[in-house]
């Protein structure tokens, strides 16, 4: 029952190879904004029931549907985790059926950080990963809190893994 309430990202680690979590990224609170607006709307429909006269069942039914959908969306966002380890990045998401997408650090060619206007104000952004693979299971990660800090964390892990050559004082160092 626990797996329906909390995404157990530790079960996806390759512990016997020394994989450790560097950062487990929860969705930014702005990811919940639409669902919270839906909850507020459903509450307003429940309040409107006494004023609907003989049609009180209509606001009740619509309110229940909006309420259940909003609670589901909040829980879905809660179960969506992006994880940075010392070996790879992966995303675990889903409630009833859980999906996992993984990309080794060595396969990351480029990370684009998109920060919309609201993201710049509230401190979130969206990651777009590029790799050498044609089909990527891990491409878009949305509503990442402190995206610049997370991007630097990934870049440091890639550098420490030796996937990229070091550059010092304008000169490249060989292998």
Concise overview:
This protein has 175 residues and is α+β, with helices and mostly antiparallel strands. The chain folds into two domains: 2-27 and 80-163, Pleckstrin-homology domain (PH domain)/Phosphotyrosine-binding domain (PTB) (PH-domain like, Roll); 32-75.
What does this structure look like?
The protein has four helices and nine strands. By secondary structure, the protein is an alpha+beta fold. The protein has two domains: 2-27 and 80-163, PH-domain like, CATH 2.30.29.30; 32-75. The strands form three sheets. The chain has a four-stranded antiparallel β-sheet with strand order 1-2-3-4. It has a three-stranded antiparallel β-sheet with strand order 5-6-7. β3 (88-93) and β4 (99-104) form a beta hairpin. The protein starts with 20 loop residues before the first strand and ends with a strand. The mean pLDDT is 90.
Number of helices: 4
Under CATH, the homologous superfamily of the largest domain reads Pleckstrin-homology domain (PH domain)/Phosphotyrosine-binding domain (PTB)
Strand order, main sheet: write it out: 1-2-3-4
Q: Give the overall average pLDDT.
A: 90
| Large-scale geometry | elongated
What are the salient characteristics of this protein?
single chain, 175 residues, alpha+beta, PH-domain like, 2 domains, four-stranded antiparallel β-sheet, three-stranded antiparallel β-sheet, 4 helices, 34% helix
Layout: helices, strands, pairs:
Elements: E1 21-25, H1 33-48, H2 57-78, E2 81-85, E3 88-93, E4 99-104, E5 108-114, H3 117-122, E6 124-131, E7 140-145, H4 147-161, E8 167-168, E9 171-172
Antiparallel strand pairs: 1-2, 2-3, 3-4, 5-6, 6-7, 8-9
